[in-house]
Fold these 4 entries.
Entry 1:
Amino acid sequence: MALGNQASKHLEESNVKTLAIHLLRTEEGVVGQWDEGHSCTPRSDEGDRNAVGDRACSVIDMNGTAPARPDLHDPVRSGLRPHRAALDMVRLGRQGLLLHPCDCFHKAYSLRLLVMVAHSPPPLATSSSSPTLNMMTPEGPPTAWSVEESAGACQSRGVSQSKWLFFLKTFGAALVVIYICVPFIIRLFPAILGKVVYLNMVKFPFFVDLKNPGELLNHTANFYLTSEEGVNIGVWHTVPASRGEEARGKDRRWFEDSLADDNPIIIYLHGNGGTRAMDHRVQLMKVLSKAGFHVLALDYRGFADSTGEPSEAGVTQDSVFLYEWVKARSHGNPVCLWGHSLGTGIATNAARKLQEKGNPADAVILEAPYTNIRDAGAYHPFGKIYHIYPGFEYFFLDTFALSNQVFPNDENVKKMTSPLMILHAEDDNVVPVSMGKELHEIAINSRHPRDVILILYPAMLGYKHKFIYKDPKLPEKLWAFLNNI
């Protein structure tokens, strides 16, 4: 039977068998063939030896059938129509390349083609139990492979590959199921979306003692305030660097009294996830302290070491309470609300509430602000995953209202009378810069333009969503803004 017919037959069968081509030379120029039990039957046809030249060959069906041996020096002329991969491997053999059998696993056609090539005349072991092919590798001395070892190695690799393939298929199927189910779960249980908004369960960085801020920030004190019954919020107070030496070893009372000096005060309202000890937050506090500002950074209820559970009304109340507490001790020094990311919505909520109480904030700074939480959700990296999902707005965006999460910056800036500064990086990959520009337009169309400042940072600076503190001129810009209020 010709090799081409053998290949076709193997391909058509549901249980694909293994076809192997062995290019070898025996000590006496004799070609052997092996059956399933690996018994060796020598063939010493002189015509065959002459036809092949200095290399003898045998085409072997590993299931026991030994077809007629063709002339592989010219397989087409001899009437042989082997699989193309087999011809390619024969050519490799002629070029003196040695391939390990398992490396010649041609999976695309479900046909295994095993090629072994010899360069010198190593002997062929004729043991009836396990014949050995002595192969000369290009890099070194001859290497002995037994047919039994080669078949076992390939079978072992095949089993391993099958297990990995099964695992990948199962894992992929699980991801698809999760992807499909998540929107339904969120719609049925809107409170889950609230957890995603705040991410307060992510208390990063780990292993930081929030009661001892001196490990991260100099001249900083930690204390707690009760914003309402049953809710205690953790706060860090960093004094201006100019008072750093004076602050060494001082108690909370000294820090509280220091708010009455002549330095402006910034209340920092951070974004979702993590604690007040996150690096980019700490770095901003360092910049502001060095610039001569008092900085008070709080963790809203449910965040870090603060008690309670977060909600839009709750985190807004925490911020309003801290502002009023600081303002009562500032002796007329300006107190500014600085919100970042999610904190921008908290800052404008607090400013609007303070205004309604007749005590508007002295100034508001929004870093990487959004128009409202619904719009922010559409552009958030998590939201982008589901943009192609049918009913994306219904399952996700409309559910924000069901979970009582609005944070309407766009509506708040229409009503606010406090001076406003907006900082936004053009390469922000979480909140698009277009939202910052839109808020600026809303603000200047609802008040005197002198009270609104927009500062955009080119993408080439790489400030993205949380690195605006790296702007070397940031302190200068802040002082220019606050000096005009």
Entry 2:
Amino acid sequence: MAAQDFPMLSKGTRVKEEDLASLACQLGECTPFPKCLDNQMEAVEPRQVVQYSQDYPTTSPQQAQYPLHLIALNSPQRGDMQGIRGIDHKCLLQAQAIGLKGTFRAFLSSRLQDLYSIVRQNDRELLPIVNLQDEELFSNWESIFSGSGGKMNDNVHIYSFDCRDVLDDDAWPEKMVWHGSSTRGSRQTDGYCETWRTGSHVVTGMASSLQEGYLIQQLPRGCTSAFIVLCIENSYIAE
């Protein structure tokens, strides 16, 4: 699929392959699921998205079996991500492009958002956090912010929406993750690249070494750096 397949794009417009996939999905022409999920798709019944408001009072025990996915964007990002809304939208588009129905948000703190608060309170202890292959990364959301620096389960990898292992793929030369947070998941006012809107080398964002298996180490890095950005599912799927 190429840019000429989309007549609404002006002549000379440069469009990334990942954005073409998202546009195609919105027109109903996307591949339902990536090849790396083929072995996961044995269920024949369609699944329904369950979304509750922030003040929904309870989560039933039956709902606890459905995990939340943590998936990387298909390319590294510098600090100038068009703000938190821009990068949230990219998470949503790339999830839709492979047929995922849940709501995805960027794994980032910003001026008006603490990373910890992205997942609903009723789900933070109940739902495991898994990768694209449904392998468990964390027992639940709370465990990421327990003071361990967000240490992942051993021998479990993080994949991008297009099925690449971000630690093994050369598309991410720097095996670092942006997060902009404290170890407890609260925003770091000097650690989110001016609300993820600048790529200046004199401004810093808080990052962590995925190579070492951690998601929220406290490692300030210049906002010119191009690092992994993760997306967390914050609505879950019920049969």
Entry 3:
Amino acid sequence: MKSHNAEFSPAEKSLQTLNSAVFERLEKLFRVAYIALLKIQGPFLDYEWMCCLEGKLGVDLGPTYSNRTSCKEFMVSIAEVERQKIEDELAQTNYCTIMSDGSTDVSGVENEGVYVHFARQGAYHCYFLGMVETECASASGIYSAIMESLHFNKHLTEEIQENIVGFAGDGASVNTGKLNGVIALFQGRINPSILMIQCMAHRVELGLKDAMKNVPLFSKVVELLDDIFKFYKSAKQKSELKSVFETLKLQFSMPTRVGGTRWVGHMLLAVKNMLKGYRALVFHLSKVSQIRSQSAPQSKAINFIKKLKSKSIIFFAHFLVDVISVLARLSKQLQERKGCVFQVHRQLETTLINLNKLGERDGFELRKVASSDTFEGEGLTGNTSEHDAQSARVIKGLVSCLQRRFDDLDKGIFSATKLADLNSWPTSSEDAKDFGDDCLMKLLDHFHDTLERKGVDLAAAEEEWTALKQALYKRFGRI
């Protein structure tokens, strides 16, 4: 039999030789590194000044490990311990879903961020597995990066792969391609029953882009927002605009970029900031347009003022705030970490109802200008015929595009998720005799091999489903 000491790793044996003072210092240094980089998410430089501060306060940390190089070593050690915890939890679960998304670092290298989702004992878990550099942004490169993130110390990658039942990613063809996409590699190399789950929030973004493709007023508003943002990137123009806000006693509202990682949110913020700072923008641009010596800024300012005083553009900007606010609420709900597929049905239905209402009557923001020829004291030129025609087309197109982007949720295996939504259950047991039977059969048929491999008695599943319904209705009466 091995002695107790033989069970320790070389690192543990080395730690045993350290005297208590050094061990106490390391414990404090680890804590500083954890707070500096993980808790407050600061740069490695924060670790050095925090160590310096601890020294000024009389804490003896010593000079040896109070540098960024040591901090990096501490972070690697912390990461290894946390990753071991994830491995231990994964070992106790039967099914999991892998989620990934691409990101480019400051050096321009493409990386893949990988997460794992699973439920155990009724509790939902989501863990970050790593940011892995990809050889290329192709399906094979992404798949290889995901597999690399599944390498653990105790369990083989193949053991984790057997538990995968779904892959979640954005709607890019590199992920969704049925022949050569990432999901095709998952299904071909691991299990054909693995589901492709497209990012719900990304569907909203794509639906909005689809609906706005052939809407001239939308293009005009986006172009105006983008040009104004670039115009005020100049330190001189930004400083002058800030002074105008102070003179008019308005809260400073800097023009923001239209695009971004959260496109719906960035678009909404950009339009709101333009309308919020409208008076100051027009005032400052009017001053710039009168300065003869500045030919380039002057011509831009004249063009901006013309667009800012266009009734169609201003009306459509208010209309966009109403529409995108509805989409932004949906997007936020879909991004909730503990959200489930079955909830999307209700959330989308509510969104479509609110959008149709905007097609029938003016929204809250549009009503502010609907019956006026001025906005913030500035006269508007032109008429609203262009806005009226295009806004009606936008609502119709947006509803259609969203329905098309989410149509897979109402058919196939995803439609079976309504079993988890108690709001979809019949109110009484008499009406629930056959409820969910078809959904259960879809699930059992689709995951037949996976469930059998995990020892699930498929023949007994239908009987247990009936027993579960009876137990719930007997206990609660009505659901």
Entry 4:
Amino acid sequence: MRVVRPCSLLSAAALPLGYALQADPSRNTCPWSGVSPDFGRFMQFPMDIMEFPDDVQDPGSFYANSGISSLERNTWRTSPDCFEEYCVYTSDGFFDKGISLITTASNHARVAHIQPPQKGSTSHQEKTRIANIPGKGKGLVATRMIHRGDRIMTTSPALLVHRNAFRELSLEDINYLMDVAVNNLPKSRKESYMSQAGSRKIIDILFTNSFQVTLGGNDGFHYGNYPEVSILNHDCRPNMAFYVDNNLTHHTHAVRDIKPGEELTISYVDTLQIRSARQERLRNSLGFSCACSSCTLSKEESNASDNRIRAISRIESELSDFNSKTTSPAMIEEYLSLYRTEGLDNSIAGAYTLAALNYNFFGNAKLAEKYAQLSVEAGQLENGPDAGDVREMIILAKNPKSHWSWNVKPYRL
């Protein structure tokens, strides 16, 4: 059974490779069905997160028309060995750390346009320490109280590999490009890449420790490796959420209070799946069986958890259908209660969005505003401040009665 989480405009912008290794076409489709043409501007699910020119065949003509200065181009080195349209591009100064790309000329140009954030990368060291975690190896542990919303780290990728390269190139060719890409990195960056979990093979490290990211357009899908993030272990009910912004910066924030001595975790899989589906995905994609608190419940407790996940899916389907005549305030509150009981703190923003919209449909401005504000708060941690749902919920929270969803389905007790 697959559970579809609430539709978020940027929810597919950054996914652990555990998602990416097994295609899930429905993840690119918003489950909401609108009742007005105006709803389309909110409910469409574009994969683009940045506006860029279409891919081109001639790299020389692309750069000539791209607006990238010769100085910007000179900060990148291009390997003389390319296979098909895929080349290795390396910058020693990208975000002051260095990066290698295995990609097309146009996607390299997209990355070359990126401006590093003013604050740069932040470290987790003042709040955490690396420790040995029983059954997991090394992990990150809190050294002092961490509060919900606290930023743990922001960091840039060391390696970005075009997803289609694995489909279009031979294993020999992709291994060659991977070797060149990693060996071209600055020494410290190469060492941080090679120190990650996995076998000593460069390609195995990528598949064990990477995220699926997009640069926009139909040709922008890549696997991004963030060495600093690889210290974070998996939990099906994690205490942190993450997203990748338009500058390829990976952000992690606490989604609930974390006590000193507690491990900091993210989820490698869709937390809105039943236990057996999560376990299968982790075994097939990443080669381990999860032993988190949710996966080691007693049979009775595990069945109850699975039933809550199924109920979330069923109610979500109703609330996402804006033409449904069976939705009610009681259904909304049951839906949110199930999320809270399951401890889905890392993926609750979409649930608050659906609650806000449905309460606004019913003409309840007070509750619509309440849940829109909660959606904004959670959405900024899960998807970033520029996410489409965050922007839309800010609009709704400011004036529910002027929002397109106001009183569409008046509810009378």
